[in-house]
């Protein structure tokens, strides 16, 4: 500290020599000013904190010492000379290119030994560290508050050591219904129901957080309106420091909807598992690569595999070896283009069980998207029993057809006996006459004898023809079905008959109205017999200068054949008896053609009937079932 001598510098007083050493020990910057506000003395701390460019500040006016804020300091000093003692708020002198330094000023008068005010004393305390700490604390609190209020979906709050709320964010307001003003200062017990408060649960949770550093659990909490909600809670212990006090931080998240959805998902999963265990159809779900993702209980029973044996493996393992290449090609095309020709269609395929046996099954597939991936679900029905039953049914139908023929023959027995009796009696008479002639030995009778024997031969052939027709009708006849093109089948059937009809100027043709018809599964010979029989009848009805057409039309579930002629048609009184045996208008016919046609068509699962042709004439119509074609695009 620099002290002047009383005789050398104006404004100096003798007792400053005594006060100087004492003031130097004070840890603050001190300056004394006289009544004219000229500096009388400064201590060493002052010189270090407020260096004076001109050298010794003693004797200088305060305006020379403080170029910035002089008016404010002058006012402080004048108040002190007037006898006032006070302290100012912290302030930082604006010093260019220097770190901001904060000071708190203490001002008061200084007196002589007589008590007279001789000037003012200015004590400047450096509070920079305190102010920086305060500012950091404010910034931290502001940032924390900003974070807390913007934590969407979370309720955040700060608790002191006793569990009282010190910070309450807007998320806590939204979740609990308690406003910040209502929550601040309360212990956080208001978030618990009365029963838990009585049991001391809030304090127990705080104690666990204090002892372990954190407490977390899924618990019940109560809103302001009394409604309970499920929440994930975490209470963390906060150790205090110079900036923040000790306490706890609590985070609440409402998981009521989440738990409901989880329970619903679990329930749906259990329900789906139960459905999968009970549905009769086998369900196999694969991914886009063809790997098995799901294998139901019915699928296990159908294929003989357990689910764990097939999960993650290619679905082609459920197919015969001959179908796997086609399946792989189809899946490759599906992955590239996303196009499927079989989606939603039910098809008949052949599967292979674990033991290597093959069996027919119906497959219907559907596409599903879930969990960000595309999947294919296949529903399968084992057709083994159904087709075995169908085969048995067809066998029974053939048996019934056979029995029907035998039954009909019981009715026809007398007629057949009559038909056979005439030629046989004629043969007997002729042979007996021939025997008598031979006994007489008359040469003139030899020519008569030769003619009689010729008549006997003709009558014998007639009886044999009747018996042959009868045998064919009664024959049971097994069906040998093959895939045939409908139009080609009809064209081949009428080829020779149409050629002969041209000589009578009768046009005979086949019309296929639907392009690209699918094949049908039939006994080719028997169906051609039906077509030929109907065409022959039509040609005989037209007689000459007419037209006979076999029209083939593909319908959704059946193939329709219509034989149309331009003849006179059939009288209404005969229509009901057309398909009865021995109902004929032909002089040489037996009336068995149409009944045989009906038996063949019904054995194929079809129907035959008569209807008048639109432009006159007759139309005989029969239908055959469409063949459920087995696709090559095996799944």
TrEMBL record:
Reaction catalysed by this enzyme: ATP + protein L-histidine = ADP + protein N-phospho-L-histidine
Main EC class the enzyme belongs to: transferase
Domain Histidine kinase: 415-628
Keyword terms, alphabetized: ATP-binding, Kinase, Nucleotide-binding, Phosphoprotein, Transferase, Two-component regulatory system
SUPFAM superfamilies tied to this protein: ATPase domain of HSP90 chaperone/DNA topoisomerase II/histidine kinase, Homodimeric domain of signal transducing histidine kinase, PYP-like sensor domain (PAS domain)
PAS domain segment(s): 158-213, 268-321
EC numbers: 2.7.13.3
Protein's name in the database: histidine kinase
Organism: Erythrobacter fulvus
Lineage: Bacteria, Pseudomonadati, Pseudomonadota, Alphaproteobacteria, Sphingomonadales
